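User: Predict the full complex structure for these chains.
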Amino acid sequence: MKNPLDSITGTIVSGIILTIILLALLENFLNT
Amino acid sequence: MDFIFAGATDIYTGLMRFFHVIAGVAWIGLLYYFNFVQVPALKAAAADGTGAGITKHVAPLALLWFRWAALATWLAGAALLGDNFTTAFLLQDGYEAIGLGSWLGTIMLFNVWVLIWPNQQKILGMKKATDEEKTVARRVALLASRTNTMLSIPMLLLMTNGLSHKALLHI
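Assistant: Here is the predicted structure of the two-chain assembly.
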């Protein structure tokens, strides 16, 4: 599998996916 | 007029936040410059042999501002957290969002000083390195820089969208 960080598009998409994961973590598992 | 009559703590916090944002703009702005402008430009310049101007005159100066802006941003952020520094990094008591953002910023600072800067010194000829070492350095520096670009997206969202309102109020 190609490393997504090898392209700018892959980097930005990875950042957006990571953002969604962290927001879900905050919403469901951390007391905010 | 409230600003004029603000207490010393408010002025200190306000100045630190202002400094944190200015240094952060310089840091992340240069990070985006490297990823979105310099790397593709150097690739194009390699084709016609015109990259020397960038690697000799632009990159070292950009890296100088980049790494010190990164440190200044982190220090001002730590000063802003103040007594709540540990609470934030332990993701507790209303500091979960800003704490996650602080962790991302800290990982990014580590990448700048431990992975990007030492490897860029080899790539740009500021530190002695063999051709094989330069090849490895190019890969490590690129991936660390791309990792920081990726991390900057959730980091900025966590720090700017109001999830950290409790940290802003210092309560």
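The helical segments of chain B are 8-48, 52-81, 85-89, 96-123, 131-160, 165-169.
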